[in-house]
Amino acid sequence: MGRVDVLLGLxxxxxxxxxxxxxxxxxxxxxxxxxxxxxxxxxLEFAGEKYVLRSxxxxxxxxxxxxxxxxxxxxxxVLFREEVESLFNSGHPxxxxxxxxxxxxxxxxxxxxxxxxxxxxxxxxxxxxxxxGIGPTYTDKxxxxxxxxxxxxxxxxxxxxxxxxxxxxxxxxxxVEVPDLTQAEADFFAAVEYLRQFRFVDSEFVINNTLKSGxxxxxxxxxxxxxxxxxxSYPFVxxxxxxxxxxxxxxxxxxxxxxxxxxxxKAYCTRVGAGPxxxxxFDEDGRQxxxxxxxxxxxxGRPRRCGWIDLVALRYTIMLNGxxxxxxxxxDVLDTFATIKACRAYRINGVExxxxxxxxxxxxxxxxxxxxxxxxxxxxxxREEQLPKAFLDYVxxxxxxxxxxxxxxxxxxxxxxxxxxx
Length: 422
Ligand code: GDP
Ligand code: IMO
Ligand code: MG
Fold this sequence. Notes:
By secondary structure, the protein is α/β, with parallel strands linked by helices.
């Protein structure tokens, strides 16, 4: 029996999942996305080229491995087409290597309008979504009104029309003036036609048969555990289960099939969009992280908020996911810092806690440990033996605090700038 190893973000997304899925793909027979949609932006760099993937799994650049868009994903045909065409134009045809679950839900043009209208109605309380229609599409799924990829094989127009009319009613109810949809619908239907060249599959069978034949699968998470609909900083979260359990429902595999759980985090912390962020920095240190880490959203281009690493939140997400191996990214971004801080505990109403509280939308004072910086350029190193002692001391400190080994260290955006320890 093969196994499913899961790779997922432990913070608020953008940890570097795309890069590491690409690095790990040669070890697997298949790569599968299990949740999220084009709100994700997964960046990969190799051979001087940079790619940002949104709906396409990050296993497509390593040989002819099959990549799966699982049932837990929400798919926007228009953005998918753009993504696939741009990959084709750069010499990466996907048609024979990418399959799509019939049970994945479709993002319609009106879902995007509902996303925008919902945010507008929230005013100052807005979530700061990516505007891709993610929330409304998952809402339709749960309220049993969704349109699925498999519907394309049936009377799709009728399904589409029913959903659209419902959405228009909702928009009118919100007092939104609905724009002319002629062009958006033409693009949408053209993209749905385009989608037909891909194989629609009952991916739960594809996946379980693959496992049965002794092959292994890498499940690629999107977003991060702090954006999980159940356990994240609700309501400032995304609309899917980003944690490891999401891979079981998002692919149709038993929890017993899960092998390693790779938890990926940055050597510091970022967040894009609104919502609480206890270790956020508004000073020169934060500015340096943003600049050195080039912290701008891969999808929206929005500046990402930066802060010190939050071990309270990380212990929580490691617990939720049952992480077996940690992966630390963007170590090089801290190269210039004389001192590095790590939030070991929170102080809330004068009481120190190491446990993540029900809500972080309250006055929280981060309690920091200070670790001496390494103050040298890590980006050229590719073996552990070359790494400076001060850096390895930071790694050892994190392993003690988090009680899980750090198996991979990333020291730059390129595929090659990766040190695999075990
Ligand atoms: P994802 O959504 O988790 O795949 O992450 P993103 O692609 O949104 O953001 C990660 C960003 O950091 C991308 O621009 C990567 O190219 C870049 N990156 C990944 N690993 C490293 C690293 O070790 N060092 C540096 N400096 N950049 C990295
Ligand atoms: P990757 O996979 C970082 C954030 C948005 C917003 C909230 C809800 O690249 O790590 P949504 O559009 O999902 O309804 O927005 O979630 N968000 C992300 N932040 N990385 C992502 O994906 C994100 N996907 C959504 O900024 O705060
Ligand atoms: Mg991203």
